[in-house]
Amino acid sequence: MSAPFEERSGVVPCGTPWGRWYQTLEEVFIEVRVPPGTRAKDVRCSLGSRDIALAVCGQELLQGKLFDSTVTDEGTWTLEDRQLIRIVLMKTNRDAGNCWTSLLENEYAADPWVQDQMQRKLTLERFQREAIFFFYLHQNPGFDFSGAEISGNYSKGGPDFSSLEK
């Protein structure tokens, strides 16, 4: 079995003052740098369907209304090596056209080039999952779309192949 798409193709990160965020079709990942030696008991993290709040040692690092809705019960956070908090949010809307342009409604927007690259990655991820490729993938299960180039209009998730006969 091949590795998941996002692991093969890398990520398209959007840098922020506190770290970075990036996304796949299904998830939004947030990585927050914290002072070395931070302990889990120093972290206060609240994840709602449309909001997020993160404080470390009483200092607010991230708070606001998310760009789009998430599945509340599936959001998680971990503290890694006592210096990085990784938050994973599950998108409610999981199609390629749902490329978040920013993490919060009015903050941490991706610049136009990064936004373009994010949309391209989500479109490639969608193409890999599309039924139109099923036959070829079935015959060649190791085929990897991560190096594919897309040209033309791929905004809103690219062309719609759902009406083609299977």
What would your notes on this structure say?
- With 166 residues, this protein is α+β, with helices and mostly antiparallel strands.
- It is 17% helix and 30% strand.
- The strands form 3 sheets. It has a 5-stranded antiparallel beta sheet. Strands 4-5-6 form a 3-stranded antiparallel beta sheet, with no helix packed on it.
- The radius of gyration is 18 Å and the shape is elongated.
- The N terminus is likely disordered.
Please specify the SSE layout and strand pairing.
Elements: H1 5-9, E1 14-15, E2 19-23, E3 27-33, E4 43-47, E5 51-56, E6 59-65, E7 76-80, E8 84-90, E9 102-104, E10 107-109, H2 112-129, H3 134-139
Antiparallel strand pairs: 1-2, 2-3, 3-8, 4-5, 5-6, 7-8, 9-10
CATH topology term: Immunoglobulin-like
Q: Percent range for helical residues?
A: 10-25%
What is the gyration radius calculated from CA atoms?
A: 18 Å
Q: How many extended strands?
A: 10
Report the average pLDDT across residues: 83
- Structural class call reads alpha+beta
Task: Encode the helix/strand succession as letters.
Answer: HEEEEEEEEEEHH
* Fraction in beta strands: 25-35%
Number of domains: 1
End-to-end gap:
24 Å
Please report the number of helical segments. Answer: 3
Query: What is the molecular shape?
Result: elongated
- Characterize the largest beta sheet: strand count, sense, and whether it forms a barrel: 5 strands, antiparallel
Strand arrangement within the widest β-sheet reads 1-2-3-8-7
Pfam families: CS (PF04969)
Protein name: NudC domain-containing protein 2
Subcellular location: Chromosome, Centromere, Kinetochore; Cytoplasm, Cytoskeleton, Microtubule organizing center, Centrosome; Cytoplasm, Cytoskeleton, Spindle pole
Subunit structure: Interacts with LIS1.
